[in-house]
Automatic annotation (TrEMBL):
<keyword id="KW-0560">Oxidoreductase</keyword>
<dbReference type="InterPro" id="IPR023985">
    <property type="entry name" value="SDR_subfam_1"/>
</dbReference>
<comment type="similarity">
    <text>Belongs to the short-chain dehydrogenases/reductases (SDR) family.</text>
</comment>
<dbReference type="InterPro" id="IPR020904">
    <property type="entry name" value="Sc_DH/Rdtase_CS"/>
</dbReference>
<feature type="domain" description="Ketoreductase">
    <location>
        <begin position="11"/>
        <end position="204"/>
    </location>
</feature>
<keyword id="KW-0520">NAD</keyword>
<dbReference type="InterPro" id="IPR057326">
    <property type="entry name" value="KR_dom"/>
</dbReference>
<dbReference type="Pfam" id="PF00106">
    <property type="entry name" value="adh_short"/>
</dbReference>
<dbReference type="InterPro" id="IPR036291">
    <property type="entry name" value="NAD(P)-bd_dom_sf"/>
</dbReference>
<protein>
    <submittedName>
        <fullName>3-oxoacyl-[acyl-carrier-protein] reductase</fullName>
    </submittedName>
</protein>
<dbReference type="GO" id="GO:0016491">
    <property type="term" value="F:oxidoreductase activity"/>
</dbReference>
<dbReference type="InterPro" id="IPR002347">
    <property type="entry name" value="SDR_fam"/>
</dbReference>
Length: 284
């Protein structure tokens, strides 16, 4: 049986943190498979304590351009996922524009570094607020509309390998990503009766601005023993032309492969599952 060229034809997806990197890769991949894609990002610094550069409105506009170039219609909004009202307004616009919402990729997240007992209170609140509470607000805004549409659907929550394995130096990030596992599993049970499946993915060492050399050098320079908790990726991917990709970082498009699978009908019986995406690093 042949696979449809556009398996997501007629579907509508919402992707948060979509201005660049993983979020952009997910949005463009879903559009290339036939979906219309709603993209959102804060497009501004979340905090001065986050050392890597923030996305910009131009970045989000480029994602819209790439989504449309890939064949999807697009809707965009600059918003903070810590604000429930803004998310609800965007979902309302989505339904008014496209008539439905089928796929949610809760991708937005933030990272900074520090030992747990030395973290400024604002840093703890920021990371938990964006990664965990912001994801819950995304779900809070989206799920009622998905239920009302009556089409079932797929929710993909982007956690991290840090949600499955403790990582020193960013325990607040690890706590937020571990919290997403519980959110995923509970929501899978609660939303299952409406045909909505919910899964989390757990990438490791993806080549994005969040891989911040200066921030990592500072924390590992102070605490070199922490390096042992950050495993290399043992599996080197070999492309069709025989060229190997770098073993150190994965391109966001590799993660988009998993998002695409979980968004489509091929995963229709998969829910409440954690999918490590780390080329085997968690086995070290």
């Amino acid at each position: 049986m042949s696979t449809p060229v556009t398996p997501l034809e007629g579907k509508v997806a919402l992707v948060t943190g979509a201005a660049r990197a993983q979020g952009r890769a997910h949005a463009v991949r879903l559009a290339s498979e036939g979906a219309d894609v709603v993209v959102t990002d804060i497009c501004a610094p979340v905090s001065e304590s986050v050392s890597y550069p923030a996305p910009t409105p131009d970045d989000l506009a480029e994602t819209v351009r790439l989504v449309e170039e890939a064949g999807g219609r697009s809707l965009s909004a600059v918003l903070d996922i810590r604000e429930l009202g803004a998310l609800q307004d965007l979902v309302t616009r989505t339904i008014a524009t496209f008539g439905r919402l089928d796929i949610v990729v809760a991708n937005a997240g933030v990272l900074n570094w520090g030992r747990l007992w030395e973290l400024p209170e604002d840093d703890w609140d920021m990371v938990i607020g964006v990664n965990l509470s912001g994801t819950w607000r995304t779900i809070r805004a989206a799920v009622p509309a998905m239920i009302s549409a009556g089409n079932g659907g797929s929710i993909i929550i982007v956690s991290s390998s840090a949600g499955l394995k403790a990582t020193p130096g960013n325990g607040h990030y690890s706590a937020s990503k571990a919290g997403l596992v519980a959110l995923t599993n509970s929501l899978a049970l609660e939303a299952g009766e409406f045909g909505i499946r919910v899964n989390s993915i757990h990438p490791y060492s993806v080549d994005t601005p969040m891989i911040d050399p200066d921030g990592m050098a500072e924390i590992f320079g102070r605490f070199p023993s922490y390096l042992h908790s950050f495993s290399p990726m043992p599996l080197k991917n070999v492309l069709a032309d025989g060229v190997s990709t770098l073993a150190d970082f994965m391109p966001p498009e590799e993660v988009a492969d998993v998002v695409s699978f979980l968004a489509g009908d091929g995963s229709r019986s998969i829910s409440g599952v954690q999918v490590p995406f780390d080329r085997g690093a968690l086995r070290y």
